[in-house]
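[#protein-structures] MJ: dropping Lipoprotein here for a structure pass
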Amino acid sequence: MTWKNLALVLSGILIGCAGGAAGRALADYPAQAPRFEHMCLGPSSSVSGINDDVTKAGNEGWELVTMTQGIVCFKRPR
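AK: finished. structure tokens for Lipoprotein:
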């Protein structure tokens, strides 16, 4: 077997292995992205009011996503 043939065979093996690994990775990927519901709360008149709102939402399974100018937004899986 010549060096060219050996290189061609080894290249084919490497490409085949890489393709198989990529196929397995795609098979493990979820078919559908997770779905979330969202909720935003308006500004509260006090820091303790914001803290109470965030604590209550967290206890209900909401995850804080952002807070800006007193508005807090949450998400949780459906």
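MJ: nice. The chain has two helices and three strands.
AK: one more thing. The mean pLDDT is 80.
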